[in-house]
């Protein structure tokens, strides 16, 4: 995926000229709807007065993000609940188009973010493997060479012809995880909130994630597990209220984040739009 074409400045700690990911002033605004009884009459009045719907509230989940991430980088994103970490991953994955700024993402992105995204629930497990593979940039022949390993790892071979709508949520996440980790991505996006199956599967999933991390050119991980981030990552980015607070070597960023958390309670109360 690539949107925006110019090459820009290196972000603090960024890779500069060789950047495969570049964000310049990227912002994302969410709109929430407060009143479920908002009437057609009120909607018409809002339209007539050319004002934003009076039952809407909006807030910036990301504001003016400048980043450049180069080949070989392992980036850990830290920050309190509701800071915008997962939202940033979704913007990088192309799930949310930015509301403002420029975004460049070069290469095949494997988003281990949302299990089941890109699946068609009417189709069989097997058809969905091909569908998901296509979304990751693989044609049928390339997926055919991988399908055996995907069934092997997911342990779902006997359900290959069952429509996905009859899969349990655990089965869905296993299949999705097995497909996404069978490919060699240029850019791996990982969200720790990801839940992948039962205890046995989780243990196998951990080994598999470590192997995909090794095979990926760029890895971006969102996590609250600082030890894991310190082990996996070389660079850290601390985000708070949608703004980059620090960017640099992972150890230094974790230290600054901890210093800050020591002074202030990091958990945001409620949705920012409600407070606006
Ligand atoms: N689809 C959405 N519509 C409206 N608001 C949203 C949406 N997705 C996220 N938000 C809000 O955007 C803010 C950032 O959410 P996000 O999930 O990116 O936080 P996070 O840093 O990943 O938090 P956590 O560590 O708890 O996972 C939060 O206030 C959240 O409520």
What does this entry look like structurally?
The protein is 35% helix and 25% strand. It is globular, with a radius of gyration of 20 Å. The strands form two sheets. A six-stranded mixed β-sheet has the order 5-6-7-3-8-9, sandwiched between helices. A three-stranded antiparallel β-sheet has the order 2-1-4. Mean pLDDT is 82; it is low at 1-17 and 265-270. It has a domain at 16-108 and 223-275: 3-Layer(aba) Sandwich (Rossmann fold). Helix 3 (125-135) packs across helix 4 (140-154), helix 3 (125-135) crosses helix 5 (169-180) and helix 4 (140-154) crosses helix 5 (169-180). It is of the alpha/beta class. It has helices at 40-48, 85-92, 125-135, 140-154, 169-180, 199-215, 226-232, 250-263, 272-275; strands at 19-33, 56-70, 74-78, 100-105, 109-112, 187-191, 218-222, 235-240, 243-249.
């Amino acid at each position: 995926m690539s949107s925006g074409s110019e090459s820009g400045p290196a972000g603090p700690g960024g890779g500069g000229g060789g950047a495969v990911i570049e964000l310049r002033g990227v912002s994302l605004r969410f709109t929430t709807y407060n009143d479920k009884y908002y009437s057609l009459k009120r909607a018409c009045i809002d339209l007539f007065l050319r004002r934003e719907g009076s039952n809407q509230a909006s807030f910036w989940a990301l504001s003016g993000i400048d980043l450049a991430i180069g080949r070989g980088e392992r980036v850990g994103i830290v920050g309190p609940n509701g800071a915008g970490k997962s939202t940033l991953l979704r913007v990088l994955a192309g799930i949310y188009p930015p509301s403002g700024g420029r975004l460049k993402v070069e290469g095949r992105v494997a988003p281990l973010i949302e299990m089941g995204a890109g699946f068609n629930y009417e189709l069989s497990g097997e058809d969905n493997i091909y569908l998901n593979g296509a979304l990751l940039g693989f044609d049928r022949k390339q997926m055919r060479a991988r399908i055996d390993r995907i069934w092997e790892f997911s342990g779902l071979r006997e359900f290959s012809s069952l429509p996905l709508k009859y899969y349990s949520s655990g089965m869905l996440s296993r299949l999705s995880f097995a497909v996404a980790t069978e490919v060699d991505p240029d850019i791996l996006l990982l969200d720790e909130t990801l839940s992948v199956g039962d205890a046995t599967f989780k243990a196998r999933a951990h080994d598999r994630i470590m192997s995909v991390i090794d095979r990926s050119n760029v890895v971006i991980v969102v996590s609250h597990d600082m030890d894991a981030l310190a082990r996996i990552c070389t660079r850290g980015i601390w985000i708070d209220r949608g703004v980059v607070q620090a960017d640099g070597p992972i150890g230094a960023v974790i230290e600054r984040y901890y210093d800050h958390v020591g002074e202030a309670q990091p958990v945001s109360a409620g949705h920012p739009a409600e407070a606006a």
